[in-house]
Amino acid sequence: MHLFIPLLASIIFVASLICVKRVANPRPGKTGLGPVTVLFFSNQAMALAFTFFWRQSYALPSLESVWQPLALASLFVLGMLFTFAAIRLGDISIATPILGVKVVIVAVLLSTISSNALSVSIWLAAAMAFLGIGLIQWTGRAQPKHALRTIAMALMATVFYAHFDVLVQSWAPTWGRGRLLSIIFWLVGLFSLPLLPWVEWKWLKEPEMIGWLGLTSILTALQAFLMVIALAYFGDAARVNIVFALRGMWAVALAWVLRKSLTSEESELSYSAFRLRFAGAGLLTAAVFLAIAEPI
Fold first, then answer.
1. What dihedral do alpha carbons 133, 137, 138, 142 form, nearest 10°?
2. What's the pTM?
C-alpha cells in the first residue's frame, strides 16, 4: 500500500513541472521567473510543511551525527536547483524521464551499502526503466546543444537525489524520522537564504505570476513531502523510486495533451516522435508493475 504514495507523488511532480515551465515562459517571447526564484520559494514552503513532523519523534541525535542532516539538506537543494534548471532549459518530456535514471543509481547504491542484496526482479525492473528512459530521450528533436544541456542538468539532479533517498532511508531510524525530516528541511530553507539577492522580486508585482509561483511552490513541496515520507517511514527505496519513475509516462502524456500550448520545442514534435516516447514510457510502466509484484 505504501507504493501508492510515490505513485501520487509522480503525478504531482509532473504537475509542478508544468507550473515551472509556465512561470519560466509566461507568454511567447517573454522570459519569466528563473530557477533560483522558484527554488527559493519552494524550499521555504517545504521548510514550513515539515515543521509539523517535529513532535512525532522523541529520539535524540548524537553529536557524531550532526553532519548528516547538513549533508542531506545540501544534496536536496542541489537536486532541486538542477531539476529546475533542466526544466527551464529544455522539454519536460525529455528532462522528466531522464530524472528517472535515479532508479538505477538508487539500486546500485543500495546494493553497495546494504547487506541485503536486491532481487533479480528489482534489478530487471530498474534495467527496463533505464531502457525506457533512453528511448524517450533518444527521440528528442530539440537542438543538439540544447538537448545535451538539458540531459546533463537532469542527470546531475538524479545523482544528488539518489544519494539523498538512500541516506534518508539509512539514517532516519537512528535519528527518529520526524526529527530528522524537520531538521533537514529547516536547513533547506536556511540554505536558500543566500539566494535572496537573485530572487526576481520585480516579477512578483504581477498578480498572475504570484498565483503561478504559489501553485508551483505548493505542488513542489507536496511531491517532495510524499516522497520523503515514503522513504523515511517505509524504506524500500528501490521500489519507491521505480514507481516514482512513472512521472516519465505522465510527462509524455501531458506534453502530448498540452503540446499546442507549451512554449518549447515540444509543440513542434511529430506524431511519430511522440509514439516513440510513449513506447519508452510504456517500458517504465512495465518496470513499475514488475517492481510492485515483488514481495516485500
1. 180
2. 0.76
At a CB cut-off of 8 Å and minimum separation 6, what does 93 contact? 136, 251, 252, 254, 255, 266, 277
pLDDT tens, position by position, 133-155: 667 666 544 455 566 788 788 88
- b vs e for 248-285, b when ≥16 Cβ sit within 10 Å of the residue's Cβ? bbbbbbbbbeeeeebbbbbeebeeeebebbbebbebbb
Ranges under pLDDT 50 in the chain: 57, 140-142, 263, 267, 296
Lookup result for grid cell 510515490: 6
Q: Rounded to the nearest 5°, which phi and psi values hold at 27?
A: -145, 150
Q: How far is it, in rounded angstroms, from Cα 266 to Cα 283?
A: 21
Per the CB < 8 A criterion, the answer to whether 231 and 237 are in contact is: yes
Return d(Cα 234, Cα 97) in angstroms, integer. Answer: 24
The tally of CA atoms less than 13 A away on the side-chain side of residue 224 is 31
The model's pLDDT over 268-287, given as tens digits with 9 standing for 90+, comes to 555 666 677 777 777 877 77
C-alpha to C-alpha distances, 255 to 53, 94, 95, 164, 267, nearest whole angstrom: 35, 10, 12, 28, 8
Q: How many CB atoms lie within 10 A of CB 206?
A: 13
